């Protein structure tokens, strides 16, 4: 058990203002592995002041130099990837292989993409008799969740730094250790003091203080819709910029001409990965009624193979919440064909990979984000019916379409109300804009679109 102290503020680890601590628990066995300080309003204020003081110099740093610092950051993340993977596994519970490839691997790619973008982006353009300057928004307050703990920090930090913004990050209370490791990486990469600051703490205390701070120009939040709504209201009331990455209930639409076995197997893997704790997971599988029973059998077999290889969910509250949803699915008439609500182990926050058949669109398990290893398989009559079901939730973050012919899948994808669609199993692209339609959020992350979130324009007329 390691008792960490200090907040990373103004380029050093300095003592926290208060004496409160947060216990970090390994979800696999419920052991307390570390403690970190619980930040207060004073810590947040100190961090925001440091970010404000560092802003003019960082904003004036030539983009090529900001790019060089981001490239150095990418290199440190790459060099420390084993330590990063082990840390995420310890505090999130994800299997080590997933931690290595995704939790440690994706941030390297994203940091690298912003090193490149900072060097090549047109921060100045000519429009008629005007020169338009793309300037940094200012001080950013970033509030991040635990499900992809380093990715979500890097997906905000890297574009903010590329744009010339400075920032304060408040990571999730469940996963502060990889956030601390990231602060060390930022330091090692030679990013100037005050440009990046980290305050660990509780959402309603440190998170709220950051969102409400008058010297924060943009709040970027990823997490639950409930908290996102509050943060949106605070930011709008104070006329701050706000970016929200919220939940999802994405549809995996398997058209009749698709390779059913492949679509179902990839679909199940997509949901079970990271124990279902993925906002963009395809948690609703839509299958034509003629192939429905076959798909359900394939999905049950695929889920049955996972056992506890997927890892636990993050904490006791999430476990109870997910199991509550599984019970609710049964109560509303859905049929469990794999898994179920019972605990597979005595210790740790484990949930069995679960598949529901006979799910109808209005059921709770077809409407609400469960954030656990639970797949709902729904039946559709024809393409229009499939589209109605696919678009029939308050969310619109991601999705998938499978068809024998790519053009057929694309035609369907064009009609979906959602921010991303994978065609016949298309791969994750760290340069493609990521973000939601409808209540899945406001704004976009990643790539050039993610960079523009951190920029504001100034037009000079000649
Ligand atoms: P959450 O409470 O929304 O947590 C996200 C971040 O917001 C954390 O850093 C959290 O701090 C902070 N926060 C909480 N209350 C706050 C407040 N009043 N003001 C400012 N910041 C605040 O999410 P959660 O409770 O961990 O998870 C609940 C559900 O949210 C999940 O079951 C899932 O449905 C959804 N979720 C979605 C995503 C996504 O990627 N879209 C990610 C995670 C969760 P603490 O860590 O201290 O709570
Ligand atoms: Mg919370």
TrEMBL record:
For the Aldehyde dehydrogenase domain, which residue ranges apply? 13-459
For whether the record's keyword set contains Zinc-finger, the answer is no
List, alphabetically, the InterPro entries matched.
Answer: Ald_DH/histidinol_DH, Ald_DH_C, Ald_DH_CS_GLU, Ald_DH_N, Aldehyde_DH_dom
Q: Which residues form the active site?
A: 245
Q: Which keywords are on file for this protein?
A: Oxidoreductase
Q: Which Pfam families match?
A: Aldedh
- Gene3D superfamilies attached to this UniProt entry: Aldehyde Dehydrogenase, Chain A, domain 1, Aldehyde Dehydrogenase, Chain A, domain 2
Q: Name one GO molecular function term.
A: oxidoreductase activity, acting on the aldehyde or oxo group of donors, NAD or NADP as acceptor
Homology family: Belongs to the aldehyde dehydrogenase family.
Protein name, entry field: Aldehyde dehydrogenase
């Amino acid at each position: 058990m390691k008792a960490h102290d200090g907040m990373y503020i103004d380029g050093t680890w300095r003592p926290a203002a208060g004496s409160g601590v947060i216990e970090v628990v390994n979800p696999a066995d419920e052991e307390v592995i570390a403690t970190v300080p619980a930040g207060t309003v004073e810590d947040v204020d100190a961090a925001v002041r440091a970010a404000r003081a560092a802003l003019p110099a960082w904003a004036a740093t030539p983009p090529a130099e900001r790019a060089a610092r981001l490239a150095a950051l990418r290199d440190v993340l790459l060099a420390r990837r084993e330590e990063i993977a082990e840390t995420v596994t310890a505090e999130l519970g994800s299997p080590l292989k997933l931690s290595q490839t995704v939790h440690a691997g994706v941030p390297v790619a994203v940091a690298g993409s912003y090193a490149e973008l900072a060097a090549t982006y047109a921060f100045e353009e000519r429009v008629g008799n005007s020169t338009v300057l793309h300037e940094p928004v200012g001080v950013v307050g970033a509030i991040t969740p635990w499900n992809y703990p380093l990715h979500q920090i890097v997906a905000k930090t890297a574009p903010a730094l590329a744009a010339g913004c400075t920032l304060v990050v408040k990571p999730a209370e469940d996963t502060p250790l990889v956030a601390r490791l990231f602060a060390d990486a930022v330091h090692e990469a030679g990013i100037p003091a005050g440009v990046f600051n980290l305050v660990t703490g509780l959402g309603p205390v440190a998170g709220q203080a950051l969102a409400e701070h008058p010297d924060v120009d943009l709040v970027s939040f990823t997490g639950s819709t409930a908290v996102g709504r509050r943060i949106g209201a605070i930011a709008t009331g104070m006329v701050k910029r706000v970016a929200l990455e919220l939940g999802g209930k994405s549809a995996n639409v398997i058209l009749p001409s698709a390779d059913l076995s492949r679509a179902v197997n990839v679909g199940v893997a997509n949901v079970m990965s990271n124990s279902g704790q993925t906002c963009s997971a395809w948690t609703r599988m839509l299958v034509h009624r003629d192939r429905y029973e076959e798909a359900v059998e394939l999905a049950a077999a695929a889920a049955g193979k996972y056992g506890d290889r997927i890892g636990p969910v993050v904490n006791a509250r999430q476990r109870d919440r997910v199991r509550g949803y599984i019970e609710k699915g049964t109560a509303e008439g859905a049929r469990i064909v794999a898994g179920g609500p019972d605990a597979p182990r005595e210790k740790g926050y484990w949930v069995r990979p679960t598949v529901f058949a006979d799910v109808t669109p209005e059921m709770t398990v077809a409407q609400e984000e469960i954030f656990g290893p639970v797949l709902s398989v729904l039946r559709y009559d024809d393409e229009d019916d499939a589209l109605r079901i696919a678009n029939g939730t308050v969310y619109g973050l991601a999705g998938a379409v499978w068809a024998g012919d790519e053009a057929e899948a694309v035609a369907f994808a064009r009609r979906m109300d959602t921010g991303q669609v994978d065609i016949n199993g298309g791969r994750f692209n760290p340069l493609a804009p990521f973000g939601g339609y409808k209540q899945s959020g406001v704004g976009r992350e990643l790539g050039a679109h993610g960079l523009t979130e951190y920029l504001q324009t100034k037009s000079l007329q000649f």
